[in-house]
Amino acid sequence: MPLCVYLCYTPGCQTKVERWQPSAEEGRSARMECPRCGVVMECAWTGTQTRTPNLKDVSEIKPRS
Q1: What does each of the 65 residues of the chain score in pLDDT, given as a tens digit?
Q2: Are the CB atoms for 10 and 39 separated by under 8 Å?
Q3: I want to staple 27 with a disulfide (CB 3.0 to 4.6 A). Which of 4, 19, 45, 51 is the partner?
Q4: 7 vs 16, 53, 63, CA distance in Å?
Q5: What ranges do the domains of the chain cover?
């Protein structure tokens, strides 16, 4: 389930809205109206939810180089 970020580029508004969407495609095509000015916002970013690793399953933690 991806998190989608929608931005309103209306001068003086510039509102940001974050919504979880069922899929990245649905997130990009969703019609999200700005809660502040009513203009249709653009999907600026679509990310994916990553599972948090269980540290009990990690045998050794190596530092990044």
Answers
A1: 788 999 999 999 989 999 999 988 999 999 999 999 999 999 999 887 667 777 777 666 666 76
A2: yes
A3: 4
A4: 5, 31, 36
A5: 3-49
- What is the full DSSP assignment across 7-64? E--STTT--EEEEE-SSHHHHHH---B-TTT-PBPEEEEE----PPP-GGG-S-PPPP
With a CB cutoff of 8 Å and minimum separation 6, the contacts of 3 are: 18, 19, 20, 21, 46, 47, 49
| CA–CA gap between residue 50 and residue 60 (Å, rounded) | 21
Structural contact between residues 7 and 42, judged by C-beta atoms closer than 8 angstroms: yes
